[in-house]
# Entry
Amino acid sequence: MGNNILYIEDNPDNMMLVKRALEARGYRLLEAMTGLEGVAKAENEDVDLILLDINLPDIDGYEVARKIRNSSKTKLAYTPIIAVTANALKGDAEKALSSGCDVYMSKPINIRELWARVEAFVPSPQNSL
# Structure
């Protein structure tokens, strides 16, 4: 098991916050600013977990999750996807889960919750030293 996390997020401030938080725990963050870029990176890189914003500039995160789950790269059918979104309306969590996400987290991002959610799927490299 590696420690590569793909974050698909169009907001540079959120990207920087998550990058700093996860790199502090020893993870390597791969960045994608659009949904289609995220799908391409998931298919071309060795990814252990995906953090996915729902509101993206090209295709929404629900479509990204469906494309990743239906990829010809078999491993992506089982790669954990955590939806990280400001969408907090009734039904949003269910919609994220039904599109292929494993977990739903709301923004603003709580760093301790982020660490706990990520480490539940991909143990921190720091903790294995």
Remarks:
- The first strand starts at residue 4 and ends at 8.
- The helical segments are 12-23, 35-44, 61-69, 92-98, 111-121.
